[in-house]
């Protein structure tokens, strides 16, 4: 499995102290919680996974060669997500 990191993802990973090993672990072992089949260029996915008990969301796309293009990485917060970290909170 080949990984390609967008500049935005690299910046966010640096800001949030997330390394490539963490991202690749989440993509390989996490759970896809949202699909974006109509995204520009390639369909993309939001995956939830855990590394050392730290929850991470990774947004990535997959090209025609099955290259994983990492778009962004962040820790989900209870401000935006329910306790399962899979369900978005409804905005009032």
Structure write-up:
The chain has 92 residues and is of the alpha+beta class. It has one domain. The protein is 21% helix and 36% strand. The chain has two helices and five strands. The protein has helices at 7-15, 20-29; strands at residues 3-5, 31-36, 44-51, 54-62, 68-74. The protein has a five-stranded mixed beta sheet with strand order 1-5-4-3-2. The longest helix has 10 residues, at 20-29. The chain is globular. The N and C termini lie far apart (41 Å).
Q: Pairing-aware structural class of the strands and helices?
A: alpha+beta
Number of helices: 2
Strands in their spatial order, largest beta sheet: 1-5-4-3-2
Order of SSEs, N→C?
EHHEEEE
Q: Tally the beta strands.
A: 5
What keyword list fits this structure?
92 residues, alpha+beta, five-stranded mixed beta sheet, 2 helices, 5 strands, 36% strand
SSE order and pairing:
Layout: E1 3-5, H1 7-15, H2 20-29, E2 31-36, E3 44-51, E4 54-62, E5 68-74
Parallel strand pairs: 1-5
Antiparallel strand pairs: 2-3, 3-4, 4-5
Q: Quick summary of this structure?
A:
By secondary structure, the chain is an alpha+beta fold. The chain contains 2 helices and 5 strands; from the N terminus they run βααββββ. A 5-stranded mixed β-sheet has the order 1-5-4-3-2.
């Amino acid at each position: 499995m080949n990984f390609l990191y967008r500049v935005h993802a690299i910046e966010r990973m640096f800001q949030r102290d997330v390394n490539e090993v963490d991202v690749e672990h989440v993509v390989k072992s996490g759970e896809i919680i949202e699909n974006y089949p109509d995204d520009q260029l390639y369909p993309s996915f939001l995956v939830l996974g855990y590394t050392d008990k730290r929850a991470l969301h990774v947004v990535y796309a997959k090209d025609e060669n099955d290259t994983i293009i990492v778009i962004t990485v962040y820790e989900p917060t209870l401000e935006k997500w329910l306790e399962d970290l899979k369900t978005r909170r409804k905005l009032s």
